């Protein structure tokens, strides 16, 4: 979840096998006023408001990272199918390897969550993008839903190649002295360590009920966290907030921690562990 080619390349050089860009929309957006990010005891609370340079200005950044042979996943957000299709075709033309549809931002009005909680809309947007592009399409869904499986199934019916779960969890913090919410947007999304059990539960429920791969994300800070997601049914994992806790070396370290656990427990292939918790 980064938008500048320099930092994306640093992440790729440090052991990540792919990178997901920050979500990009049609027009440049400044995002919300500060404070937009606060570190809490067990996680990070943010309401950035989807700041981004707009799709046309993003071409150059993608070209800079596409110089390596690493996988780049272009994340996009829109308010309707037409916008999503325009963004998807542009991202594809810029050379990304896959698309991630952000239908789950908990704090951007008119985008994200409103779209991602309607089965028909999720299916239609996915279907329209699949018809107009020829690269894999991942649909990122939210834990803030009453029935996460219903939305995952709608994306699968629309032709999604994978489901990404979860985005940040809708949350708030109040400043006791000022007696007001700490975020300028008042409500934000919670990420990091505290949300791992929520993400693991979502991945477990989704992977039990659909036939496409699930990519797990939420609170992964160690190799053991990643293994939990894999046992819950994730075929791959993403790492966001842990870069704040552990810096950019986190990717190499997590890879090492997974390998050590597998060696100590007699596993050679990670695929042997995908979904084992379902048995
Ligand atoms: C500061 C910040 C910015 C984020 N921006 C995006 C974004 O642009 N698009 C998106 O789909 N998710 C975004 N996320 C959500 C993360 O990709 C991820 O789903 C979530 O933080 C849970 O994973 P983590 O606990 O490893 O951070 C953002 C999260 C944070 C903390």
Please describe the structure with a list of short key phrases separated by commas or semicolons.
single chain; 279 residues; alpha/beta; 7-stranded parallel β-sheet; 4-stranded antiparallel β-sheet; 10 helices; 13 strands; globular; binds flavin mononucleotide
Which helices and strands, and how do they pair?
Blueprint: H1 5-13, E1 18-20, E2 37-39, E3 44-46, H2 55-65, E4 71-76, H3 81-94, E5 98-102, H4 113-116, H5 119-132, E6 137-141, H6 148-157, E7 162-165, E8 169-171, E9 174-175, E10 180-181, E11 188-191, H7 196-209, E12 214-217, H8 223-232, E13 234-238, H9 242-246, H10 250-264
Parallel strand pairs: 1-4, 4-5, 5-6, 6-7, 7-12, 12-13
Antiparallel strand pairs: 2-3, 3-11, 8-11, 9-10
Helix pairs in contact: 1-2, 2-3, 3-5, 5-6, 6-7, 7-8, 8-10
This protein binds flavin mononucleotide.
Residues 1, 22-23, 37, 44, 46, 48, 75, 102, 140, 167-168, 191-192, 195, 217-220, 239-242 line the site of flavin mononucleotide.
What does this structure look like?
The protein is α/β, with parallel strands linked by helices. It contains 10 helices and 13 strands. It has helices at residues 5-13, 55-65, 81-94, 113-116, 119-132, 148-157, 196-209, 223-232, 242-246, 250-264, and strands at residues 18-20, 37-39, 44-46, 71-76, 98-102, 137-141, 162-165, 169-171, 174-175, 180-181, 188-191, 214-217, 234-238. The strands form 3 sheets. It has a 7-stranded parallel sheet. It has a 4-stranded antiparallel sheet with strand order 2-3-11-8, with no helix packed on it. A two-stranded antiparallel ribbon has the order 9-10. Helix 2 (55-65) runs parallel beside helix 3 (81-94) and helix 3 (81-94) packs parallel to helix 5. The radius of gyration is 18 Å and the shape is globular. The two termini are 33 Å apart. The mean pLDDT is 93. It binds flavin mononucleotide. Flavin mononucleotide (FMN) binds next to strand 3.
């Amino acid at each position: 979840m980064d938008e500048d080619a320099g930092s994306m390349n640093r992440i790729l050089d440090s052991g990540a096998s792919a990178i997901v860009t920050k979500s990009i929309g049609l027009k440049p957006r400044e995002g919300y006023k500060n404070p937009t990010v606060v570190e809490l005891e067990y996680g990070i609370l943010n309401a950035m408001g989807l700041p981004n340079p707009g799709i046309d200005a993003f071409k150059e950044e993608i070209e800079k990272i596409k110089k390596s042979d690493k996988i780049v996943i272009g994340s996009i957000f829109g308010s309707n199918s037409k916008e999503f299709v325009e963004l998807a075709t542009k991202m594809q033309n810029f050379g990304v390897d896959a698309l991630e549809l952000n239908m789950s931002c908990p704090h951007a009005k008119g985008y994200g969550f409103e779209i991602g909680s309607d089965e028909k809309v999720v299916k239609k947007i996915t279907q329209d993008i699949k018809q107009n592009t020829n690269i894999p399409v991942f649909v990122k869904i939210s834990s803030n839903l009453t029935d996460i499986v219903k939305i995952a199934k709608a994306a699968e019916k629309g032709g999604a190649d994978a489901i990404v779960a979860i985005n940040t969890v809708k949350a708030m913090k109040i400043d006791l002295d000022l007696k007001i919410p700490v975020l300028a947007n008042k409500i934000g999304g919670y990420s990091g360590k505290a949300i791992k059990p929520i993400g693991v539960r979502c991945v477990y429920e989704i992977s039990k009920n659909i036939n496409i791969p699930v990519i797990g994300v939420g609170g992964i800070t160690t190799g053991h966290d990643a293994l939990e997601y894999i046992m819950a049914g994730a075929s791959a994992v993403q790492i966001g907030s842990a870069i704040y806790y552990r810096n950019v070396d986190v990717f190499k370290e997590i890879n090492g921690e997974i390998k050590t656990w597998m060696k100590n427990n007699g596993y050679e292939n990670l695929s042997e562990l995908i979904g084992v918790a379902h048995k």
